[in-house]
Design brief:
single chain, 608 residues, alpha+beta, Creatine Amidinohydrolase, Chain A, domain 1, Creatine Amidinohydrolase, 6-stranded mixed sheet, 19 helices, 28 strands, 20% strand, globular
Length: 608
Protein backbone atom coordinates (compact mmCIF):
# COMPACT_ATOMS: atom_id res chain seq x y z
CA UNK A 1 0.00 0.00 0.00
CA UNK A 2 1.35 3.42 -0.99
CA UNK A 3 0.62 6.05 1.64
CA UNK A 4 -0.12 9.66 0.60
CA UNK A 5 2.06 12.62 1.53
CA UNK A 6 1.05 16.08 2.76
CA UNK A 7 0.84 19.27 0.73
CA UNK A 8 -0.01 21.65 3.56
CA UNK A 9 1.74 20.18 6.62
CA UNK A 10 5.28 19.23 7.62
CA UNK A 11 6.58 17.08 10.45
CA UNK A 12 10.07 18.29 11.18
CA UNK A 13 10.90 18.87 14.84
CA UNK A 14 9.76 22.47 15.42
CA UNK A 15 12.27 23.36 18.13
CA UNK A 16 15.76 22.54 19.36
CA UNK A 17 16.35 22.97 23.12
CA UNK A 18 20.12 22.82 22.60
CA UNK A 19 20.02 26.27 20.98
CA UNK A 20 18.30 27.98 23.90
CA UNK A 21 21.30 28.59 26.18
CA UNK A 22 23.33 30.36 23.51
CA UNK A 23 20.45 32.52 22.37
CA UNK A 24 19.47 33.59 25.90
CA UNK A 25 23.11 34.43 26.63
CA UNK A 26 23.30 36.56 23.47
CA UNK A 27 20.11 38.40 24.45
CA UNK A 28 21.47 39.10 27.94
CA UNK A 29 24.63 40.57 26.44
CA UNK A 30 22.55 42.84 24.19
CA UNK A 31 20.34 43.95 27.09
CA UNK A 32 23.33 44.72 29.29
CA UNK A 33 24.82 46.87 26.53
CA UNK A 34 21.59 48.91 26.53
CA UNK A 35 21.55 49.28 30.32
CA UNK A 36 18.55 46.97 30.71
CA UNK A 37 18.02 44.36 33.42
CA UNK A 38 15.46 42.32 31.51
CA UNK A 39 13.15 41.99 28.53
CA UNK A 40 9.61 40.63 28.01
CA UNK A 41 9.03 38.35 25.01
CA UNK A 42 5.35 37.68 24.22
CA UNK A 43 4.16 35.09 21.76
CA UNK A 44 2.79 37.80 19.50
CA UNK A 45 3.24 39.81 16.36
CA UNK A 46 2.14 43.43 15.94
CA UNK A 47 -1.45 42.27 15.36
CA UNK A 48 -1.68 40.05 18.46
CA UNK A 49 -2.73 37.14 16.26
CA UNK A 50 -2.95 33.50 17.29
CA UNK A 51 -0.84 32.50 14.31
CA UNK A 52 2.28 34.56 13.69
CA UNK A 53 4.43 34.61 10.55
CA UNK A 54 7.83 32.95 10.79
CA UNK A 55 9.76 36.21 11.00
CA UNK A 56 7.72 37.27 14.04
CA UNK A 57 8.09 33.99 15.98
CA UNK A 58 10.58 35.47 18.44
CA UNK A 59 9.38 33.48 21.46
CA UNK A 60 9.79 30.20 19.59
CA UNK A 61 13.23 31.20 18.29
CA UNK A 62 14.49 32.20 21.74
CA UNK A 63 12.96 29.51 23.97
CA UNK A 64 12.05 26.68 21.60
CA UNK A 65 8.39 26.82 22.68
CA UNK A 66 5.99 26.61 19.72
CA UNK A 67 2.58 26.74 21.43
CA UNK A 68 -0.06 29.31 20.52
CA UNK A 69 0.11 31.35 23.75
CA UNK A 70 2.80 32.26 26.23
CA UNK A 71 5.32 34.83 27.44
CA UNK A 72 8.96 34.76 28.43
CA UNK A 73 10.90 37.10 30.67
CA UNK A 74 14.68 37.12 30.54
CA UNK A 75 16.54 38.77 33.45
CA UNK A 76 20.27 38.87 34.07
CA UNK A 77 20.25 35.82 36.36
CA UNK A 78 17.01 33.99 35.58
CA UNK A 79 14.46 33.42 32.84
CA UNK A 80 10.87 32.17 32.82
CA UNK A 81 8.57 30.73 30.15
CA UNK A 82 5.01 31.34 31.35
CA UNK A 83 2.28 29.23 29.69
CA UNK A 84 -1.25 28.08 30.49
CA UNK A 85 -2.26 24.57 31.54
CA UNK A 86 -2.59 23.35 27.94
CA UNK A 87 1.14 23.68 27.44
CA UNK A 88 2.67 22.63 30.77
CA UNK A 89 4.21 19.45 29.36
CA UNK A 90 5.05 20.89 25.95
CA UNK A 91 6.90 23.92 27.31
CA UNK A 92 9.11 21.82 29.59
CA UNK A 93 9.90 19.46 26.71
CA UNK A 94 10.73 22.13 24.14
CA UNK A 95 12.94 24.52 26.11
CA UNK A 96 16.21 24.10 28.01
CA UNK A 97 14.93 23.94 31.58
CA UNK A 98 18.46 24.48 32.93
CA UNK A 99 18.28 27.99 31.47
CA UNK A 100 14.55 28.77 31.25
CA UNK A 101 12.09 27.77 33.97
CA UNK A 102 8.68 26.66 32.70
CA UNK A 103 5.98 28.35 34.81
CA UNK A 104 2.26 27.56 34.89
CA UNK A 105 0.32 30.77 34.25
CA UNK A 106 -2.60 29.75 36.46
CA UNK A 107 -0.23 29.62 39.44
CA UNK A 108 2.05 32.54 38.57
CA UNK A 109 0.85 34.92 35.83
CA UNK A 110 3.30 37.15 33.98
CA UNK A 111 2.74 40.28 36.07
CA UNK A 112 3.14 38.41 39.36
CA UNK A 113 6.37 36.75 38.19
CA UNK A 114 7.80 40.16 37.27
CA UNK A 115 6.71 41.65 40.58
CA UNK A 116 8.46 38.84 42.47
CA UNK A 117 11.65 38.60 40.41
CA UNK A 118 12.59 41.98 38.90
CA UNK A 119 15.32 43.48 41.14
CA UNK A 120 14.62 46.79 42.85
CA UNK A 121 15.62 49.60 40.53
CA UNK A 122 15.67 47.21 37.57
CA UNK A 123 14.87 48.40 34.06
CA UNK A 124 12.56 46.02 32.16
CA UNK A 125 12.40 46.52 28.40
CA UNK A 126 9.49 45.74 26.09
CA UNK A 127 8.58 46.11 22.42
CA UNK A 128 5.55 48.47 22.26
CA UNK A 129 4.43 46.91 18.96
CA UNK A 130 3.93 43.53 20.66
CA UNK A 131 1.76 44.55 23.63
CA UNK A 132 -1.70 46.10 23.85
CA UNK A 133 -2.50 49.22 25.85
CA UNK A 134 -4.04 47.07 28.60
CA UNK A 135 -1.06 44.72 28.49
CA UNK A 136 1.39 47.59 28.99
CA UNK A 137 -0.70 48.91 31.90
CA UNK A 138 -0.36 45.53 33.64
CA UNK A 139 3.39 45.49 33.02
CA UNK A 140 3.72 49.02 34.42
CA UNK A 141 1.85 48.07 37.57
CA UNK A 142 3.96 44.94 38.11
CA UNK A 143 7.24 46.75 37.48
CA UNK A 144 6.25 49.58 39.84
CA UNK A 145 5.41 47.05 42.55
CA UNK A 146 8.90 45.60 42.15
CA UNK A 147 10.44 49.04 42.45
CA UNK A 148 11.68 49.10 38.87
CA UNK A 149 10.92 50.94 35.64
CA UNK A 150 9.40 49.85 32.34
CA UNK A 151 11.20 50.94 29.18
CA UNK A 152 9.65 51.02 25.68
CA UNK A 153 12.34 50.07 23.18
CA UNK A 154 12.61 51.58 19.69
CA UNK A 155 13.80 48.25 18.26
CA UNK A 156 13.33 44.65 19.39
CA UNK A 157 16.71 43.41 20.72
CA UNK A 158 16.05 39.86 19.54
CA UNK A 159 16.11 41.00 15.91
CA UNK A 160 19.75 42.08 16.30
CA UNK A 161 20.88 38.58 17.32
CA UNK A 162 18.52 36.53 15.11
CA UNK A 163 20.97 36.29 12.23
CA UNK A 164 18.97 33.85 10.08
CA UNK A 165 15.61 35.53 10.62
CA UNK A 166 13.14 34.69 7.80
CA UNK A 167 11.93 37.38 5.43
CA UNK A 168 8.42 38.84 5.86
CA UNK A 169 5.71 36.97 3.92
CA UNK A 170 4.82 38.09 0.39
CA UNK A 171 1.63 36.11 -0.28
CA UNK A 172 -0.74 37.72 -2.80
CA UNK A 173 -3.87 39.51 -1.57
CA UNK A 174 -6.89 38.27 -3.51
CA UNK A 175 -10.53 39.33 -3.74
CA UNK A 176 -13.05 37.23 -1.79
CA UNK A 177 -15.98 36.63 -4.14
CA UNK A 178 -19.38 38.18 -3.42
CA UNK A 179 -20.87 34.71 -3.87
CA UNK A 180 -19.06 33.72 -0.66
CA UNK A 181 -18.99 37.04 1.24
CA UNK A 182 -22.70 37.81 0.96
CA UNK A 183 -22.25 41.55 1.61
CA UNK A 184 -20.22 44.14 -0.29
CA UNK A 185 -17.58 46.35 1.29
CA UNK A 186 -19.58 49.55 0.86
CA UNK A 187 -22.41 48.12 2.96
CA UNK A 188 -19.99 46.95 5.65
CA UNK A 189 -18.34 50.39 5.77
CA UNK A 190 -21.74 52.04 6.19
CA UNK A 191 -22.40 49.84 9.21
CA UNK A 192 -18.98 50.62 10.67
CA UNK A 193 -19.45 54.37 10.24
CA UNK A 194 -22.79 54.16 12.01
CA UNK A 195 -21.10 52.35 14.91
CA UNK A 196 -18.38 55.03 15.07
CA UNK A 197 -21.02 57.74 15.19
CA UNK A 198 -22.78 55.95 18.06
CA UNK A 199 -19.46 55.57 19.89
CA UNK A 200 -18.68 59.26 19.30
CA UNK A 201 -15.25 58.60 17.83
CA UNK A 202 -13.73 60.11 14.69
CA UNK A 203 -12.00 57.06 13.24
CA UNK A 204 -11.22 53.38 13.75
CA UNK A 205 -7.82 51.76 13.37
CA UNK A 206 -8.37 48.24 12.04
CA UNK A 207 -5.45 46.36 13.59
CA UNK A 208 -6.87 42.81 13.40
CA UNK A 209 -6.09 41.27 9.98
CA UNK A 210 -9.24 39.13 10.27
CA UNK A 211 -11.30 42.32 10.46
CA UNK A 212 -9.34 43.83 7.57
CA UNK A 213 -9.99 40.77 5.40
CA UNK A 214 -13.70 40.71 6.30
CA UNK A 215 -14.42 44.40 5.76
CA UNK A 216 -12.66 44.71 2.41
CA UNK A 217 -13.61 41.22 1.16
CA UNK A 218 -10.04 40.11 0.56
CA UNK A 219 -8.02 37.10 1.60
CA UNK A 220 -4.26 36.45 1.75
CA UNK A 221 -1.70 33.91 2.86
CA UNK A 222 0.69 35.62 5.27
CA UNK A 223 0.23 33.18 8.16
CA UNK A 224 0.00 29.42 8.36
CA UNK A 225 -3.36 27.82 7.49
CA UNK A 226 -5.40 31.04 7.74
CA UNK A 227 -5.99 33.15 4.59
CA UNK A 228 -4.94 36.45 6.15
CA UNK A 229 -3.25 39.48 4.63
CA UNK A 230 -1.24 41.15 7.40
CA UNK A 231 -1.94 44.86 7.36
CA UNK A 232 -3.93 47.74 8.81
CA UNK A 233 -6.72 50.08 7.81
CA UNK A 234 -8.01 53.41 9.05
CA UNK A 235 -11.76 53.92 8.68
CA UNK A 236 -12.80 57.54 9.34
CA UNK A 237 -16.32 58.39 10.44
CA UNK A 238 -16.51 60.57 7.35
CA UNK A 239 -14.60 60.02 4.14
CA UNK A 240 -12.81 57.14 2.46
CA UNK A 241 -10.83 54.54 4.38
CA UNK A 242 -7.15 53.78 3.79
CA UNK A 243 -5.84 50.22 3.61
CA UNK A 244 -2.17 49.72 4.48
CA UNK A 245 -0.88 46.75 2.50
CA UNK A 246 2.23 46.29 0.40
CA UNK A 247 1.00 47.31 -3.09
CA UNK A 248 3.09 44.63 -4.80
CA UNK A 249 1.12 41.94 -2.92
CA UNK A 250 -2.31 43.14 -4.10
CA UNK A 251 -3.74 41.45 -7.20
CA UNK A 252 -5.48 43.60 -9.80
CA UNK A 253 -8.91 42.28 -8.83
CA UNK A 254 -8.38 42.98 -5.12
CA UNK A 255 -6.85 46.37 -5.90
CA UNK A 256 -9.83 47.36 -8.02
CA UNK A 257 -12.24 46.26 -5.28
CA UNK A 258 -10.45 48.21 -2.54
CA UNK A 259 -9.90 51.19 -4.82
CA UNK A 260 -13.62 51.48 -5.46
CA UNK A 261 -14.26 52.35 -1.81
CA UNK A 262 -10.94 53.54 -0.38
CA UNK A 263 -7.25 54.27 -0.77
CA UNK A 264 -4.29 51.88 -0.72
CA UNK A 265 -1.03 52.91 0.96
CA UNK A 266 2.17 51.05 1.87
CA UNK A 267 2.52 49.91 5.50
CA UNK A 268 5.26 52.48 6.12
CA UNK A 269 2.65 55.24 5.66
CA UNK A 270 0.64 54.12 8.71
CA UNK A 271 2.64 56.13 11.24
CA UNK A 272 2.29 59.41 9.33
CA UNK A 273 -1.47 58.86 8.94
CA UNK A 274 -1.84 58.24 12.69
CA UNK A 275 0.14 61.38 13.45
CA UNK A 276 -2.13 63.31 11.08
CA UNK A 277 -5.19 62.07 13.01
CA UNK A 278 -3.51 63.11 16.24
CA UNK A 279 -2.69 66.56 14.90
CA UNK A 280 -6.36 66.97 13.98
CA UNK A 281 -7.25 66.27 17.65
CA UNK A 282 -9.18 63.18 16.57
CA UNK A 283 -10.58 60.63 18.97
CA UNK A 284 -9.52 57.30 17.51
CA UNK A 285 -10.93 53.90 18.46
CA UNK A 286 -8.31 51.16 18.93
CA UNK A 287 -9.25 47.51 19.38
CA UNK A 288 -8.33 46.78 23.00
CA UNK A 289 -7.58 43.14 22.15
CA UNK A 290 -5.32 43.57 19.11
CA UNK A 291 -4.08 47.17 18.86
CA UNK A 292 -0.44 47.66 19.80
CA UNK A 293 0.48 50.15 22.49
CA UNK A 294 2.70 51.85 19.89
CA UNK A 295 -0.40 52.88 17.92
CA UNK A 296 -1.86 54.67 20.94
CA UNK A 297 1.43 56.42 21.61
CA UNK A 298 1.69 57.73 18.03
CA UNK A 299 -1.83 59.20 18.24
CA UNK A 300 -1.44 60.67 21.72
CA UNK A 301 2.00 62.18 21.11
CA UNK A 302 0.59 64.02 18.06
CA UNK A 303 -2.24 65.53 20.11
CA UNK A 304 -5.06 63.05 19.51
CA UNK A 305 -7.04 60.83 21.88
CA UNK A 306 -6.60 57.06 21.58
CA UNK A 307 -9.80 55.29 22.68
CA UNK A 308 -9.13 51.63 23.52
CA UNK A 309 -12.35 49.61 23.34
CA UNK A 310 -14.30 47.06 21.35
CA UNK A 311 -13.73 46.94 17.60
CA UNK A 312 -17.30 47.04 16.19
CA UNK A 313 -16.19 44.81 13.31
CA UNK A 314 -15.67 41.83 15.63
CA UNK A 315 -19.39 41.30 16.32
CA UNK A 316 -20.40 42.09 12.75
CA UNK A 317 -17.98 39.44 11.48
CA UNK A 318 -19.08 36.93 14.11
CA UNK A 319 -22.74 37.10 13.05
CA UNK A 320 -22.60 35.26 9.73
CA UNK A 321 -25.04 36.31 7.01
CA UNK A 322 -27.24 33.87 5.09
CA UNK A 323 -24.69 33.46 2.29
CA UNK A 324 -21.88 32.66 4.72
CA UNK A 325 -24.07 30.17 6.59
CA UNK A 326 -25.12 28.43 3.39
CA UNK A 327 -21.44 28.24 2.44
CA UNK A 328 -20.54 26.75 5.82
CA UNK A 329 -23.24 24.10 5.46
CA UNK A 330 -22.02 23.19 1.96
CA UNK A 331 -18.41 23.03 3.13
CA UNK A 332 -19.38 20.69 5.95
CA UNK A 333 -21.18 18.34 3.59
CA UNK A 334 -18.12 17.81 1.40
CA UNK A 335 -15.93 17.70 4.51
CA UNK A 336 -18.23 15.12 6.08
CA UNK A 337 -17.91 12.91 3.01
CA UNK A 338 -14.12 13.20 3.21
CA UNK A 339 -14.25 12.25 6.90
CA UNK A 340 -16.45 9.25 6.16
CA UNK A 341 -14.00 7.96 3.55
CA UNK A 342 -11.14 8.60 5.94
CA UNK A 343 -12.72 6.82 8.92
CA UNK A 344 -13.53 3.88 6.67
CA UNK A 345 -9.86 3.79 5.61
CA UNK A 346 -8.77 3.88 9.26
CA UNK A 347 -11.19 1.09 10.16
CA UNK A 348 -9.63 -1.09 7.46
CA UNK A 349 -5.95 -0.24 7.83
CA UNK A 350 -5.27 0.64 11.47
CA UNK A 351 -6.02 -2.87 12.85
CA UNK A 352 -3.45 -4.34 10.44
CA UNK A 353 -0.66 -2.40 12.17
CA UNK A 354 2.05 -0.22 10.68
CA UNK A 355 -0.01 2.95 10.22
CA UNK A 356 1.62 5.91 11.99
CA UNK A 357 0.23 9.24 13.15
CA UNK A 358 1.91 10.96 10.20
CA UNK A 359 0.36 8.44 7.81
CA UNK A 360 -3.03 9.19 9.35
CA UNK A 361 -2.57 12.95 8.97
CA UNK A 362 -1.53 12.59 5.33
CA UNK A 363 -4.43 10.26 4.52
CA UNK A 364 -6.98 12.73 5.89
CA UNK A 365 -5.44 15.68 4.06
CA UNK A 366 -5.53 13.59 0.87
CA UNK A 367 -9.24 12.82 1.30
CA UNK A 368 -9.94 16.54 1.56
CA UNK A 369 -7.80 17.23 -1.49
CA UNK A 370 -9.99 14.80 -3.42
CA UNK A 371 -12.86 17.31 -3.07
CA UNK A 372 -11.00 19.52 -5.55
CA UNK A 373 -11.92 22.59 -3.47
CA UNK A 374 -9.47 22.44 -0.57
CA UNK A 375 -7.43 25.65 -0.18
CA UNK A 376 -5.55 24.57 2.96
CA UNK A 377 -6.05 22.78 6.24
CA UNK A 378 -7.49 25.16 8.84
CA UNK A 379 -4.83 24.22 11.41
CA UNK A 380 -2.11 21.62 11.87
CA UNK A 381 -3.92 18.31 12.33
CA UNK A 382 -3.85 16.90 15.86
CA UNK A 383 -3.49 13.14 15.42
CA UNK A 384 -2.65 11.46 18.71
CA UNK A 385 -2.29 7.74 19.36
CA UNK A 386 -2.32 6.41 22.92
CA UNK A 387 -0.57 8.81 25.32
CA UNK A 388 -0.16 11.45 22.60
CA UNK A 389 -3.96 11.78 22.53
CA UNK A 390 -3.76 13.02 26.13
CA UNK A 391 -2.04 16.20 24.88
CA UNK A 392 -4.90 18.51 23.79
CA UNK A 393 -2.68 20.52 21.40
CA UNK A 394 -0.37 17.73 20.27
CA UNK A 395 1.50 18.25 17.01
CA UNK A 396 3.04 15.11 15.53
CA UNK A 397 6.66 15.39 14.42
CA UNK A 398 9.11 12.88 12.99
CA UNK A 399 10.52 12.51 16.51
CA UNK A 400 7.17 11.95 18.29
CA UNK A 401 5.47 9.88 15.56
CA UNK A 402 3.78 6.75 16.98
CA UNK A 403 2.30 3.69 15.34
CA UNK A 404 -1.46 3.34 15.81
CA UNK A 405 -1.78 0.36 18.13
CA UNK A 406 -4.80 -1.14 19.93
CA UNK A 407 -6.36 1.62 22.00
CA UNK A 408 -7.48 5.22 21.51
CA UNK A 409 -6.71 7.38 18.48
CA UNK A 410 -7.83 11.03 18.47
CA UNK A 411 -7.89 13.16 15.31
CA UNK A 412 -8.78 16.86 15.43
CA UNK A 413 -8.63 18.51 12.02
CA UNK A 414 -10.18 21.07 9.73
CA UNK A 415 -10.23 22.49 6.24
CA UNK A 416 -10.25 25.85 4.52
CA UNK A 417 -12.67 26.06 1.59
CA UNK A 418 -13.63 29.37 0.00
CA UNK A 419 -17.20 28.90 1.17
CA UNK A 420 -16.42 27.82 4.73
CA UNK A 421 -13.97 26.78 7.43
CA UNK A 422 -14.36 23.39 9.13
CA UNK A 423 -13.14 21.91 12.43
CA UNK A 424 -14.00 18.41 13.62
CA UNK A 425 -12.69 15.97 16.21
CA UNK A 426 -13.42 12.27 16.37
CA UNK A 427 -11.99 9.74 18.80
CA UNK A 428 -11.87 6.13 17.63
CA UNK A 429 -10.74 2.89 19.19
CA UNK A 430 -8.58 0.26 17.57
CA UNK A 431 -9.47 -3.15 18.95
CA UNK A 432 -11.50 -3.59 22.12
CA UNK A 433 -11.87 -0.62 24.47
CA UNK A 434 -11.55 -0.96 28.23
CA UNK A 435 -14.60 -0.30 30.40
CA UNK A 436 -12.87 2.87 31.61
CA UNK A 437 -12.46 4.15 28.05
CA UNK A 438 -16.13 3.55 27.34
CA UNK A 439 -17.13 5.31 30.57
CA UNK A 440 -15.03 8.40 29.83
CA UNK A 441 -16.05 8.56 26.16
CA UNK A 442 -19.73 8.31 27.04
CA UNK A 443 -19.41 11.08 29.64
CA UNK A 444 -17.78 13.31 27.02
CA UNK A 445 -20.50 12.38 24.52
CA UNK A 446 -23.22 13.20 27.07
CA UNK A 447 -21.73 16.67 27.55
CA UNK A 448 -21.44 17.14 23.79
CA UNK A 449 -25.09 16.13 23.31
CA UNK A 450 -26.17 18.39 26.19
CA UNK A 451 -24.72 21.44 24.40
CA UNK A 452 -26.30 20.35 21.11
CA UNK A 453 -29.77 20.14 22.68
CA UNK A 454 -29.64 23.38 24.69
CA UNK A 455 -32.18 26.16 24.44
CA UNK A 456 -31.39 29.44 26.14
CA UNK A 457 -32.72 32.96 26.47
CA UNK A 458 -31.40 35.85 24.40
CA UNK A 459 -28.52 37.56 26.20
CA UNK A 460 -26.99 34.31 27.44
CA UNK A 461 -23.20 34.07 27.16
CA UNK A 462 -20.97 31.06 26.57
CA UNK A 463 -19.76 31.21 30.15
CA UNK A 464 -23.31 30.42 31.29
CA UNK A 465 -23.49 27.33 29.05
CA UNK A 466 -20.01 25.86 29.51
CA UNK A 467 -20.94 23.85 32.62
CA UNK A 468 -23.56 21.80 30.74
CA UNK A 469 -20.73 20.11 28.82
CA UNK A 470 -18.80 19.39 32.00
CA UNK A 471 -21.56 18.09 34.26
CA UNK A 472 -21.36 14.40 33.19
CA UNK A 473 -17.60 14.52 33.77
CA UNK A 474 -17.93 16.35 37.08
CA UNK A 475 -20.35 13.70 38.27
CA UNK A 476 -17.54 11.15 37.91
CA UNK A 477 -14.88 13.44 39.40
CA UNK A 478 -13.32 14.50 36.07
CA UNK A 479 -12.92 17.67 34.00
CA UNK A 480 -10.97 19.16 31.08
CA UNK A 481 -8.72 22.23 31.07
CA UNK A 482 -9.72 23.89 27.79
CA UNK A 483 -12.89 25.74 26.86
CA UNK A 484 -15.86 23.81 25.52
CA UNK A 485 -15.91 25.78 22.30
CA UNK A 486 -14.48 28.64 20.27
CA UNK A 487 -15.87 30.80 17.49
CA UNK A 488 -15.13 29.92 13.86
CA UNK A 489 -14.69 32.28 10.91
CA UNK A 490 -15.96 32.16 7.33
CA UNK A 491 -12.92 31.21 5.24
CA UNK A 492 -10.94 32.95 7.96
CA UNK A 493 -9.52 31.81 11.29
CA UNK A 494 -10.69 28.52 12.75
CA UNK A 495 -10.45 30.32 16.12
CA UNK A 496 -12.58 33.47 16.01
CA UNK A 497 -13.80 35.75 18.75
CA UNK A 498 -15.49 37.22 20.57
CA UNK A 499 -17.98 34.35 20.83
CA UNK A 500 -16.92 31.26 22.79
CA UNK A 501 -18.27 28.48 24.99
CA UNK A 502 -15.96 28.90 27.93
CA UNK A 503 -15.74 30.06 31.51
CA UNK A 504 -14.23 33.22 29.98
CA UNK A 505 -16.91 33.63 27.29
CA UNK A 506 -18.77 36.77 28.37
CA UNK A 507 -20.07 37.86 24.94
CA UNK A 508 -23.81 37.10 24.53
CA UNK A 509 -24.45 34.51 21.83
CA UNK A 510 -26.41 35.74 18.83
CA UNK A 511 -27.93 34.15 15.72
CA UNK A 512 -25.43 33.46 12.97
CA UNK A 513 -22.48 32.88 15.27
CA UNK A 514 -20.59 29.65 14.55
CA UNK A 515 -18.96 27.86 17.48
CA UNK A 516 -17.33 24.54 18.21
CA UNK A 517 -18.78 22.05 20.70
CA UNK A 518 -15.83 20.01 21.94
CA UNK A 519 -15.71 18.66 25.48
CA UNK A 520 -12.94 16.20 26.28
CA UNK A 521 -11.16 14.01 28.82
CA UNK A 522 -7.41 13.48 29.11
CA UNK A 523 -5.60 10.83 31.16
CA UNK A 524 -2.00 11.96 31.14
CA UNK A 525 0.38 9.34 29.82
CA UNK A 526 -2.42 7.03 28.70
CA UNK A 527 -5.08 8.39 26.31
CA UNK A 528 -7.31 11.35 25.50
CA UNK A 529 -10.87 11.78 24.24
CA UNK A 530 -12.50 14.72 22.48
CA UNK A 531 -15.66 14.97 20.37
CA UNK A 532 -16.25 18.08 18.29
CA UNK A 533 -18.95 19.39 15.96
CA UNK A 534 -19.53 22.93 14.77
CA UNK A 535 -22.83 24.55 15.72
CA UNK A 536 -24.66 27.74 14.70
CA UNK A 537 -26.73 29.91 17.04
CA UNK A 538 -30.31 30.13 15.74
CA UNK A 539 -33.62 31.46 17.03
CA UNK A 540 -36.13 28.86 18.24
CA UNK A 541 -39.89 29.23 17.97
CA UNK A 542 -41.48 28.00 21.20
CA UNK A 543 -45.23 28.23 21.59
CA UNK A 544 -46.18 30.57 24.42
CA UNK A 545 -42.59 31.75 24.99
CA UNK A 546 -42.34 35.11 26.77
CA UNK A 547 -38.69 35.66 25.86
CA UNK A 548 -36.63 35.30 22.70
CA UNK A 549 -35.14 31.82 22.77
CA UNK A 550 -32.05 30.54 20.97
CA UNK A 551 -30.61 27.10 20.33
CA UNK A 552 -27.95 25.47 18.19
CA UNK A 553 -28.05 24.06 14.67
CA UNK A 554 -25.43 21.34 14.19
CA UNK A 555 -23.61 21.60 10.83
CA UNK A 556 -20.93 18.87 11.20
CA UNK A 557 -21.94 15.45 9.90
CA UNK A 558 -19.85 12.44 10.91
CA UNK A 559 -20.69 9.36 13.02
CA UNK A 560 -19.53 8.90 16.61
CA UNK A 561 -17.50 5.85 17.68
CA UNK A 562 -20.12 3.20 18.48
CA UNK A 563 -17.62 0.86 20.14
CA UNK A 564 -16.91 3.50 22.79
CA UNK A 565 -20.54 4.28 23.65
CA UNK A 566 -21.93 2.70 26.82
CA UNK A 567 -25.65 2.77 26.02
CA UNK A 568 -26.56 2.06 29.66
CA UNK A 569 -25.17 5.47 30.66
CA UNK A 570 -27.47 7.36 28.27
CA UNK A 571 -31.03 8.43 28.98
CA UNK A 572 -33.87 8.14 26.47
CA UNK A 573 -33.51 11.73 25.26
CA UNK A 574 -29.78 11.34 24.63
CA UNK A 575 -30.30 8.10 22.73
CA UNK A 576 -33.03 9.70 20.62
CA UNK A 577 -30.78 12.67 19.80
CA UNK A 578 -27.82 10.46 18.81
CA UNK A 579 -30.03 8.23 16.67
CA UNK A 580 -31.56 11.26 14.94
CA UNK A 581 -28.11 12.74 14.37
CA UNK A 582 -26.84 9.49 12.84
CA UNK A 583 -29.93 9.25 10.64
CA UNK A 584 -29.21 12.76 9.37
CA UNK A 585 -25.54 11.90 8.76
CA UNK A 586 -26.64 8.94 6.66
CA UNK A 587 -29.20 11.04 4.80
CA UNK A 588 -26.79 13.88 4.03
CA UNK A 589 -23.45 12.09 3.62
CA UNK A 590 -24.57 8.67 2.40
CA UNK A 591 -25.29 9.93 -1.16
CA UNK A 592 -21.80 11.51 -1.29
CA UNK A 593 -19.75 8.34 -0.69
CA UNK A 594 -19.58 5.11 -2.66
CA UNK A 595 -18.70 1.44 -2.47
CA UNK A 596 -17.38 -0.11 0.74
CA UNK A 597 -17.12 3.30 2.42
CA UNK A 598 -20.87 3.75 1.91
CA UNK A 599 -21.59 0.35 3.47
CA UNK A 600 -19.31 1.22 6.41
CA UNK A 601 -21.12 4.53 6.91
CA UNK A 602 -24.54 2.88 6.89
CA UNK A 603 -23.43 0.50 9.62
CA UNK A 604 -21.87 3.34 11.65
CA UNK A 605 -25.16 5.26 11.48
CA UNK A 606 -27.58 2.54 12.50
CA UNK A 607 -29.68 3.28 15.61
CA UNK A 608 -28.18 2.57 19.02
Amino acid sequence: MTLPTCRFQTFSEPSDPTQVAGRVAALRKTLAAQGLDGFVIPRADEHQGEYVPAHMARLAWLTGFTGSAGNAVVLADKAALIVDGRYTLQSAAQTDTAVVTAVKMEETPLDRWIERNLPAGGKLGYDPWLHTVDGVAKLEKAVAAAGGSLVALPANPIDAIWTDRPAPPTAPVKAHAAAHAGEDTASKLDRIRKALTEAKVDALVVSDPHALAWVFNVRGGDVEHTPLPLGYAIVPREGRPTVFLAPEKITNEAGDAIGAVGEIAPPAALESQLKKLGAAKAKVRLDSTTAASALATLIADAGGTPDAGADPIALMKARKNATELDGARAAHLRDGAAMARYLFWLAQEAPKGGITEIDAVAALENERLQTGLLKDVSFTTIAGAGPNAALPHYRVSEASNRVLEPGIFLVDSGAQYEDGTTDITRTIVIGEPTPEMRDRYTRVLKGHVAISRLVFVKGTSGAQLDAFARLPLWQGGFDFDHGTGHGVGSYLSVHEGPQRLSKLGTTPLEPGMILSNEPGYYKEGHYGIRIENLIVVEERRISGAERTIYGFETITWCPYERALIDRSMLDAGEIAWIDAYHATVWGKIGPLVEGEAKAWLEEACRPL
